[in-house]
Write a structure and sequence with these properties.
mainly alpha; 3-stranded antiparallel β-sheet; two-stranded parallel sheet; 20 helices; 46% helix; elongated
């Protein structure tokens, strides 16, 4: 195969974009970029009974949020459109008619009652419940007469009488699947809409897709797809079936174990870079100990040969770790911008840029999400109205009030009001009072923040500023004495 690389991500809008779908999109994107190819987005919306309103918009916005840009598809255009399967129905009907003429497909008039009864009988006998080919014996004339009369029917693929179908998979190597276990798959439903099996083959050929990179759940269907390529006389793409995503109990990942929609992680404040980096490692690794990769670095390093066969564990703790790493590395300007939005929702708008910068630098290594900054340290934004009971009991001594009154004038004259000068002032005042520094540090922290923990005292006081610190100490002396 010497054609230019063309890959596709083809989600169905039967729900919001799954993290497994994000991984599939990412691997296709990286493979295309690494090989100078094209990344196509196609919406496979032919299952109208399961269509979820808003799903298409969610797929598009989630991919955009993650930075995975398609070269062709909805919103990007392209010469192989339309990129919604519901707008390509004539292609599928033409393809089905060609298969019927060549004897590789046939009409089936069995209704649901008959199919249900057939399956129940086969099940009782301990046999496979695949279709019994009752309609395969119809003559072509009879079948066409019934079709022309408008009798409800589907079109089925005729599985050939051969031992097995062989798949040369880029991840799994050579896979053989016995033909006897393959059902005569429905290709065209009674409503005129194609099933996935027909539509994706017709579209992949029409869009000149060279590599199909998709989840392992589609591996059992791959023989049917390869047969369709053979029956149409088309060159098949190369296949790569990605490992399943598993929960920590090694069962298939489900909502029972973790949220599975990309939009959920977006809503919870995960950074797109962190989620992309995390899902990249769900089945792939660079071959060394490195873990932090930008999207551009993933493109440079990605090789389909390094995708694993075994299932990948979806570990939420690891995802949180990735988010922490990106929190620490994130440019302060971006964090400040996003923090402003969160603060505005709380009614804390109009805060000085340099003040927010100081907060971000103090807190970035202490939180996993930006939203945790005001949650864990609201005292950066409002004066404390109450004081942590356990800390008061443990840290507020009988001499604490006198020590705070003694340091107030010194803090008022501390120049510059920066961490080093504040520390020197605290040290000097403690020595003058004949106490240890801790005897002054703990009530100072309690007065300034209302709590007993947080960033370094001198650094947080410098960020809060002289006026705020003095005001809060005065208030604590009024309440705690």
């Amino acid at each position: 195969m010497n054609r230019p690389v063309r890959v596709r991500f083809a989600p169905s809008p039967t729900g919001f974009l799954h993290v497994g779908g994000l991984r599939t999109a990412l691997y296709n994107y990286c493979f295309a970029r690494a090989n100078g190819g094209r990344f196509v987005l196609r919406i496979e919306d032919t299952d109208r009974t399961r269509f979820v309103p808003g799903a298409v918009e969610d797929i598009l916005s989630s991919l955009q949020w993650a930075g995975i840009a398609h070269d062709e598809g909805p919103g990007a255009g392209g010469e192989y459109g339309p990129y919604f399967q519901s707008e390509r129905l004539d292609l599928y009907r033409e393809a089905v008619e060609a298969l019927i003429r060549s004897g590789h497909a046939y009409p089936c008039f069995c209704n649901e009652d008959r199919l249900h009864a057939m399956r129940e009988q086969l099940k009782k006998r301990g046999l496979s419940t695949k279709y019994d080919r009752a309609c395969l014996g119809l003559s072509r004339d009879e079948a066409e007469t019934r079709r022309a009369a408008g009798e409800a029917h589907v079109i089925r693929l005729r599985i050939p009488d051969e031992p097995f179908v062989r798949i040369d998979d880029l991840v799994r190597g050579e896979v053989e699947i016995a033909s006897e276990i393959l059902d005569d798959q429905v290709l065209l439903k009674s409503d005129g809409f194609p099933t996935y099996h027909l539509a994706n083959v017709v579209d992949d050929h029409a869009m000149e897709i060279t590599h199909v990179i998709r989840g392992e759940e589609w591996l059992p269907s791959a023989p049917k797809h390869l047969l369709l390529y053979r029956f149409f006389g088309w060159e098949a793409p190369r296949f790569a079936h990605l490992p399943l995503l598993l929960g920590t109990d090694r069962s298939k990942l489900s909502k029972r174990q973790a949220e599975v929609a990309v939009s959920d992680y977006r809503r919870h404040g995960f950074f797109p870079e962190a989620l992309v980096n995390f899902v990249a490692f769900l089945g792939w690794n660079p071959g060394d100990e490195r873990e932090i990769f930008s999207l551009a670095e993933l493109v440079r390093e990605f090789r389909i040969e390094r995708v694993n066969k075994s299932g990948a564990i979806f570990n939420l703790e690891k995802l949180h770790w990735f988010n922490q790493q990106y929190m620490q590395r994130r440019p302060a300007e971006r964090t400040i911008q996003e923090l402003r939005v969160i603060l505005a929702d709380r009614g804390w708008g109009g805060i000085d840029e340099s003040y927010l910068s100081g907060i971000v630098e103090l807190m970035r290594e202490r939180v996993t999400f930006i939203a945790e900054i005001p949650e864990r340290a609201p005292w950066f934004f409002v004066d404390p109205t109450e004081y942590e009971e356990a800390t008061v009991k443990k840290r507020w001594k009988k001499e604490s009030a006198a020590l705070l009154r003694g340091i107030l004038p010194a803090l008022g004259e501390c120049e510059p009001f920066e961490a080093a000068a504040i520390e020197a002032t605290v040290t000097r005042c403690a020595e003058t009072a004949g106490v240890g520094k801790a005897d002054l540090i703990h009530p100072l922290r309690l007065a300034c923040t209302g709590v007993g923990g947080g960033p370094g005292l001198y650094e947080l006081m410098a960020v809060l500023g002289r006026e705020t610190c003095l005001r809060r100490i005065d208030r604590a002396l009024e309440i705690l004495v």
